[in-house]
């Protein structure tokens, strides 16, 4: 089996553990709406939260709270929402030096509406579409141990060059991780296959994994995708996680909890996973901390509020024991 941590050790002494390339927007969360919006009609929500949003920023903020040295590159507009994004990341200890304030465009916003345990999202991309590969220099990469990119489908200015970016990172001996998030065009083009050979850890959810691989079952999707990259980890909501590395498949069931807010839970899984992975931990330990981080985050509103309570998180870890099932698919049973 190939080494889980490719290129993890080198002669470099980078100052940053995790370099995040991503989209920046605020989240406007409308809780428990009366019904879906309709033209010329008004609906009522029972609660509202305005907070730091975007898959990339939630991951970066929570990874910094968990002890990683994190830097971020992205774009915002000259507006209040842009200041909220940058200030929120800075308060978590994220290096925002490389965030570019962009003229002539507003900061992105995602409106999230919840009903029962389901949620929907409507996003104005704004400045996030202006990020390009020319904004990411080799000097930025060389000061980092690990590259992560989220929201592949939303970053239209960068998307065509993502494979080249990841190849550069591997050439410079960084480890890499990748989370596409949802394709709003619902096309799931196979150009993503050009990126995966340069990805150490691929982090879709179960539905995304099946759509990207064009397979009808998650097992088939994991087998297909893991043939192109180091390890695939599929988050499955309340059902837990499924992962595959070479011929080995890993499963952990979700925790049974009363959820306050699941916004950002998948991104928080990624932050917990990477906080172990970047320090060379075994895959099993990375998966366990990922799922505990994700579950804990659902106990608070918004994607980052949970990690204002690190003592409570440590107590949460001690209170919950996870069972992992490992199956080697190369071993045939009769």
Characteristic key phrases:
334 residues; alpha/beta; 9 helices; 14 strands; 26% strand; globular
The Cα radius of gyration reads 19 Å
* Strand proportion: 25-35%
Biggest β-sheet: strands ordered side by side in the sheet: 5-4-1-8-9-10-11-12-13-14
User: N-to-C terminal Cα separation, in Å?
Assistant: 24 Å
Biggest sheet character: 10 strands, mixed
Q: Which structural class do you get from the secondary structure elements?
A: alpha/beta
Summarize the amount of helix as a percent range. 25-40%
Order of helices and strands: EEEHEHEEEHEHEEHHEEEHHHE
Shape: globular
Q: How would you describe the overall organization of this protein?
A:
With 334 residues, this protein is α/β, with parallel strands linked by helices. The chain has helices at residues 55-65, 80-91, 138-142, 162-171, 206-213, 218-226, 265-277, 283-297, 310-319, and strands at 16-21, 25-33, 45-52, 70-77, 95-102, 108-115, 118-124, 144-150, 175-179, 201-202, 231-235, 241-245, 248-252, 324-328. It is 28% helix and 26% strand. The strands form 2 sheets. It has a 10-stranded mixed β-sheet, sandwiched between helices. Strands 3-2-6-7 form a 4-stranded mixed β-sheet. Helix 1 packs across helix 7 (265-277) and helix 5 crosses helix 6 (218-226). 46% of the residues are buried.
Short structural summary:
The protein has helices at 55-65, 80-91, 138-142, 162-171, 206-213, 218-226, 265-277, 283-297, 310-319, and strands at 16-21, 25-33, 45-52, 70-77, 95-102, 108-115, 118-124, 144-150, 175-179, 201-202, 231-235, 241-245, 248-252, 324-328. By secondary structure, the protein is α/β, with parallel strands linked by helices.
């Amino acid at each position: 089996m190939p080494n889980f941590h490719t290129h993890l050790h080198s002669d470099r002494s980078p100052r940053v553990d995790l370099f995040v390339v991503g989209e920046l927007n605020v989240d406007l969360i409308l809780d428990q709406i009366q019904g879906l919006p309709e033209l010329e009609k008004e609906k009522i929500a029972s609660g509202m939260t305005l907070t730091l949003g975007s898959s990339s920023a939630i991951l970066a903020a929570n990874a910094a709270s968990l002890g990683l040295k994190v830097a971020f590159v992205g774009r915002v507009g000259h507006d209040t929402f842009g200041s909220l994004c940058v200030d929120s990341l800075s308060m978590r200890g994220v290096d925002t030096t490389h965030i570019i304030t962009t003229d002539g465009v507003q900061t992105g916003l995602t409106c999230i509406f919840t009903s029962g345990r389901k949620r929907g999202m409507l996003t104005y991309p704004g400045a996030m579409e202006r990020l390009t590969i020319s904004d990411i220099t080799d000097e930025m990469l060389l000061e980092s141990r690990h590259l992560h990119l989220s929201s592949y489908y939303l970053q239209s200015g960068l998307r065509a060059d993502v494979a080249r970016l990841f190849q550069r990172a591997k050439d410079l001996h960084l480890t890499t991780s990748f989370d596409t998030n949802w394709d709003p065009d619902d096309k799931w083009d196979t150009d993503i296959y050009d990126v995966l050979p340069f990805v150490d850890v691929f982090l879709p959810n179960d539905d995304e994994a099946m759509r990207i691989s064009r397979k009808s079952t998650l097992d088939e999707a994991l087998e297909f995708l893991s043939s192109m990259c180091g390890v695939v980890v599929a988050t499955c909501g309340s059902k837990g996680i499924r992962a595959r590395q070479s011929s080995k498949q890993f499963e952990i069931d979700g925790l049974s909890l009363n959820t306050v807010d699941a916004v950002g839970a998948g991104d928080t899984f990624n932050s917990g996973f990477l906080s172990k992975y970047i320090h060379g931990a075994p895959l099993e330990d990375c998966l366990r901390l990922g799922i505990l981080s994700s579950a804990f985050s659902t106990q608070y509103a918004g994607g980052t509020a949970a990690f204002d309570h690190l003592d409570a998180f440590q107590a949460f870890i001690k209170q919950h024991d996870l069972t992992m099932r490992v199956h080697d698919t190369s071993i045939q049973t009769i």
